[in-house]
Amino acid sequence: DAKTTQPTSMDCAEGRAANLPCNHSTISGNEYVYWYRQIHSQGPQYIIHGLKNNETNEMASLIITEDRKSSTLILPHATLRDTAVYYCIVSPPTDSGGSNYKLTFGKGTLLTVNP
Amino acid sequence: NAGVMQNPRHLVRRRGQEARLRCSPMKGHSHVYWYRQLPEEGLKFMVYLQKENIIDESGMPKERFSAEFPKEGPSILRIQQVVRGDSAAYFCASSLRTSGANEQFFGPGTRLTVL
């Protein structure tokens, strides 16, 4: 699976948009970009995923660059409860064979939302 | 629709005892994954199971650890003769895994403490 690079930590003011970058310059054409987060002591929470197009759901938006070498997760109005470690993961589709079901978690970005 | 359920949430064992961790996947999900998170480390894949089958156990220690996902009932991760190094958070995830993207949804985890 392609490797991802994320900043170690970021701060954001409550109510403002949080923009979390991820670099995945070695991503393959069929690999998805997934974002998860882990609030302290809880299980990882799925946020969003995308392949080529930008995606939006009730939690966040995912912006993927045209060359797919990087992406940004946007939390439009961050709250204190969004303080967590955010993981950007790249993984091939389920029907591509191999061990494509493994999610490889790096160190992620610790987002701290400040009041 | 209930999410992934894990029990117990906290488990304390003495060295040499057995630990049994249970995971009930989301309704309709037949794919289960176990991950381990050692203190201050990232999540690491352990094993992937479908109903009655172990698909990949490459991330699981070859001794003392076993996993099953019977036709009826929850998936079980079993650790025999626990040692202090087994102290960790164990997370279970489930997915539909039909084709394309493979969103995995995680449970709250079981925190194992070995005295």
Describe this structure in words.
The complex is a heterodimer of chains A (115) and B (115). Chain A has 115 residues and is mainly beta. Helices cover 0% and strands 43% of the residues of chain A. Chain A is built from no helices and nine strands. Chain A has a five-stranded mixed β-sheet, with no helix packed on it. Chain A has a four-stranded antiparallel β-sheet with strand order 2-7-6-5, with no helix packed on it. Chain B has 115 residues and is mostly beta strands. Helix content of chain B is 0%, strand content 49%. Chain B contains no helices and eleven strands. In chain B, strands 2, 4, 5, 6, 9, 10 and 11 form a seven-stranded mixed β-sheet that branches. A four-stranded antiparallel β-sheet of chain B has the order 1-3-8-7, with no helix packed on it. Chain B is globular, with a radius of gyration of 13 Å. The model of chain B has no long low-confidence stretch (mean pLDDT 93). The A-B interface holds A 32, 34, 36, 41-46, 49, 51, 91, 93-95, 99-108 and B 4, 6, 31, 33, 35, 42-45, 48, 55-56, 58-59, 89, 91, 93, 95, 97-109.
Features:
heterodimer; A: 115 residues; mainly beta; five-stranded mixed beta sheet; four-stranded antiparallel beta sheet; 9 strands; globular; B: 115 residues; seven-stranded mixed beta sheet; 11 strands
Outline of the structure:
With 115 residues, chain A is mostly beta strands. Chain A has strands at residues 9-13, 18-23, 32-38, 45-50, 55-56, 61-64, 70-75, 84-91, 109-114. In chain A, a hairpin with a 4-residue loop joins strand 5 and strand 6 (61-64).
Largest interface in this structure? A-B, 25 and 31 residues
How would you classify the helix and strand content of chain A by structural class? mainly beta
What is the share of helical residues of chain B? under 10%
Strand tally of chain B:
11
Strand composition percent of chain B: over 45%
> Which spans of chain A have pLDDT < 50 for at least 5 consecutive residues?
none
Rg over alpha carbons of chain B: 13 Å
DSSP summary, beta strand count of chain A: 9
Low-confidence stretches of chain B: none
Report mean pLDDT of chain A, rounded to a whole number.
Answer: 92
Mean pLDDT of chain B: 93
The radius of gyration of chain A is 14 Å
What does the largest sheet of chain A look like? Answer: 5 strands, mixed
Strand order of the largest sheet of chain A: 1-9-8-3-4
Question: What gross morphology of chain A would you assign?
Answer: globular
Largest sheet of chain B, described in full?
7 strands, mixed
